[in-house]
Design goal:
about 400 residues, Rossmann fold, four-stranded mixed β-sheet, three-stranded parallel β-sheet, 15 strands, about 35% helix
């Protein structure tokens, strides 16, 4: 099955009794609206309302058919009544952690659940929450979507960087990342600088955490720290992989100090009342540093229709490659002068945002060349092999 077959199917063939033939497709679970709803719901009542607000079809007059119209919202809520409860785990050093929700930040909004975050805020002095993929995706969506929806106001942002990422953005091939290359680190640092500038635009103090790998050299780490110093940002080396909490103690203490200083003046980078097309342009120009977002008339008309239906206040969720500020995964560093082609827009009325699908990104990724199922078997002793 090829990638196109995964994302596009022709449904309702076979005569009038099967409905109207149409093109449809699939989304991987982490990109689904139900996942987003689970993560943004405040409680069970809010969960059912959001599920009911999902648009599942359109009538001949183009009016929406909501999930509540077909009376599916109650049953869906029952299915999710236990899933809405955060999973309480413990770290290797016996500290509590919530793991709840999993929308990918490149094709969805990339944040854990509001319930888990607000529960943690009631139980701990400091709460650290992660927003996936690059800060131009995960952090942008955490700050523009989750914080806006849940009335959260972060006290500090920790931007995680690695020497390896700087080298890749500086042109080093993946197979050569273990070799010292200070020049490539310096060449890749403007990518880090772009993220620092972007995060500062939200009015929140930014600390850089250098996630240390055992092959990183002192000269490479120092190059990153020197660059951050030139940017007016503090960069702290964290060796938690090798040393556990002792390796990140300095970082944790400094983050707590910055959070306690009360210097944050958080604000999303666009207001609710801004037109939907302008919100997309805002992110593309101010976060991706593109010249513009390219949208054809059909997309612009669709956005205006949603505004007329009362959805103009919604934030936007950009579905875009995580490998570049552009839509070209091979364009590394801090590119300028590019454009962001918006291929299609979708409404997630229950989740409460508009999805803009950009470039060649897929919301139903293709299978690997050799699926894991090919290695699963029962051996001569009757034991299952290949699951791990």
């Amino acid at each position: 099955m090829n990638d196109r077959a995964l994302r596009q199917i022709t449904a309702s063939l076979g005569g009038v009794s099967n409905g109207f033939p149409r093109e449809a497709g699939f989304d991987i679970t982490v990109a689904s609206e139900v996942m987003a709803i689970l993560c943004l719901a405040e409680d069970l009542a809010d969960l059912q309302k959001r599920l009911g607000d999902m648009i599942v079809a359109y009538r001949r007059d183009r009016s929406p058919v909501f999930c509540r119209d077909i009376k599916a919202d109650g049953a869906m809520t029952v299915l999710l009544k236990d899933a809405i409860q955060p999973n309480l785990l413990q770290t290797l050093e016996n500290n509590p952690a919530f793991v709840h929700g999993g929308p990918f930040a490149n094709i969805a909004h990339g944040c854990n659940s509001v319930i888990a975050t607000k529960t943690a805020l009631k139980l701990a002095d400091y709460v650290v929450t992660e927003a996936g993929f690059g800060a131009d995706l995960g952090a942008e969506k955490f700050l523009n979507i989750k914080c806006r929806k849940a009335a959260l106001s972060p006290s500090a942002v920790v931007l995680v960087a690695t020497v390896r990422a700087m080298k890749m953005n500086g042109g080093v091939a993946k197979n050569d990342l273990n070799n010292e290359n200070v020049a490539a680190v310096k060449a890749g640092c403007p990518n880090l600088g772009r993220h620092i500038e972007n995060l500062r635009s939200f009015g929140v103090p930014v600390l850089v955490a250098i996630n240390h790998f055992v092959k990183d050299t002192d000269a490479e780490v120092q190059a990153v720290q020197n660059y951050c110093s030139e940017m007016g940002a503090e960069a702290i080396v964290s060796k938690h992989w090798a040393d556990g909490s002792a390796g990140s103690e300095n970082l944790a203490k400094r983050v707590a100090e910055v959070a306690d200083a009360g210097e944050a003046n958080f604000s999303p980078i666009y207001p609710d009342e801004m037109p939907l097309a302008d919100k997309i342009q805002n992110i593309c120009k101010n976060i991706y540093r593109a010249d513009e977002a390219v949208m054809d008339k059909k997309i612009l008309d669709q956005l205006k229709d949603w505004e007329a239906q009362g959805y103009g206040h919604l934030p936007v969720c950009m579905a875009k490659t995580q490998y570049s500020f552009s839509t070209d995964p091979n364009l590394r560093g801090a590119p300028t002068g590019h454009v962001i082609p918006v291929r299609e827009v979708r409404i997630s009325a229950g989740a409460g945002f508009i999805v803009a699908v950009c470039g060649e990104i897929m919301t139903m990724p293709g299978l690997p060349r050799h699926p894991a199922a090919e290695t699963i078997c029962i051996n001569d002793n009757g034991e299952i092999e290949g699951l791990f």
